Amino acid sequence: MPGRLAIDFGTSNTVVALWDEIQQTGIPFHLPDYGYFYQHDHEKISVIPSQIHYASDKRRWLGYQVEQQNLTKSDRTFRWMKRYISNRSPVQRKLDGKQISHFDAGKDFLSTVLLFAATELNLGDEEVAFTVPVEAFEHYENWLADVAEAAGIRRFRLIDEPSAAALGYGAHIQPGDVYLIFDFGGGTLDVAVVLIEESDQSQVGRRCRVLGKAGLDLGGATLDQWLFQDVLKQTGRNDLDEEVRQLSRSLLVECERAKVRLSTHERADVTVMNPNTGAVLSAEFSRSKFQDLLDDNEAFTQIDQTIRRALNSARERGYQEDDIKAVLLVGGSSQIPAIQSTVRRIFGKERVMLNRPLDAVARGAAAFVAGVDFYDHIQHDYAIRFLNRQKGEYDYRILVKRGTPYPTADSLARLTVKASYDGQTQLGLAIFEMGESRQRNNSAPMELVFDPSGAARLSAVTPEEDDNRAHFWMNESSPTFLHANPPASQGESRFQVEFSIDGNKRLLMTSRDLKTQKITHRDYPVVKLT
């Protein structure tokens, strides 16, 4: 049966939404204790701060409880979990003799929220919708599956965040029109161009067909990091100073608060004091200085390039920039005046809307799980890795191009698998999900990480780490799935394989043993695509 409940797990805030059958719309669902009401224009929206605190007495405080207990700056509090999960951060923190990772903390947080919401609503066997960033890799979807299992949810669906936002704007979107979704949250920037189509008479709602998508590893947490770096620069300190280490979490929280304040005020101070020594770290930011800081870090250039990639993808499907009826801003970081000015510069003031920055994604996900249709395409390139003997290094051959609609009617690729040595019985293919390198300029990109003590520090992302994030080996645990009987000889062309995609975004393989001419696999699911 279709569902009613949707969860938009964000880097900074999480929103739970429920499908209202009478009003035919998704509505934010308030969870007492965990959530609080955020005032946007004339409407109050229930949001849950994405944070969890592990108390020394074994209790756990979640969401707004953490702020009520004044524990936001504690080294026992985990925040920005989604960002670190997405980047596969290995950092763990030792609390009470137990190692806790951001994966663990995020699972504890989100499964608890999901469990309480499901209990309140008596969901039964209904599906639940989770939202995912445009650039989400398979490991993130697998992590969400673990969260659902921990909460006792057996059936769930995934929808990418910008497409959910299009559905979530509801009455503001009309069939036949094209929209650009600009989703700038705490962890990522996701941009999507979508066409709204009427459903057929047998269904309720609208279809959302994705024309082009692009994502970037840039979000509000990145801006907090830049403010953090600038405070250290202004005060002549660095993140390795012992006093800075002790104050790093408090300093980061104050940087975040300054960023938020600068959206509505011209100036904001960042001040933290060491209660043991009385030492003070202090800096002042004006709105114009903050804008210069964004410019120095090429934020506006990266935003422009991400928008252009989405527009170019839509153009390949016959839709031009002038076809866009409106630009829908989503995400807390989209409320920053300089960001809004950048989008308005590109599209014009009249086309830019900021009606539902915090709850549009959750509302749309609720519509999706309730049955509002949704047409999508594959977001990443997928390739096989092979040894290029001329180069003397590994190279990649694309199997599935980003933008491919699914399910596919015909095979996408056909290739031959050769044996590497005499007597080989197990052959296969190394299949990789191809993202994009996050290096933004000539200098090494920096990332804010937390060491095992809980102190924040700045760490350069090495080219190897950047490449590992961009190229994800999807079937590393089972790369050999073709069995040669009798054994193959070195250099022998032994298997012919063809690939297609089904309606659940699974990469299917059909293989023929060229020696025996037998079909060994037919529509065999190899990996799940995103």
Can you characterise this structure?
With 530 residues, the chain is α+β, with helices and mostly antiparallel strands. It folds into two domains: 5-219 and 299-375, ATPase, nucleotide binding domain (Nucleotidyltransferase, domain 5); 381-437 and 469-528, Substrate Binding Domain Of DNAk, Chain A, domain 1. The protein is 27% helix and 36% strand. Helix 6 crosses helix 7 (242-261). The radius of gyration is 24 Å and the shape is globular. Mean pLDDT is 84; it is low at 201-205, 437-444 and 465-469.
Strand elements, count: 32
CATH class of the largest domain: Alpha Beta
Specify Rg, calculated over alpha carbons: 24 Å
Summing up helix and strand content along with how strands pair, one would put the structural category as alpha+beta
Report strand %. Answer: 35-45%
CATH topology of the largest domain: Nucleotidyltransferase, domain 5
The CATH superfamily title of the largest domain: ATPase, nucleotide binding domain
Give the CATH architecture of the largest domain. Answer: 2-Layer Sandwich
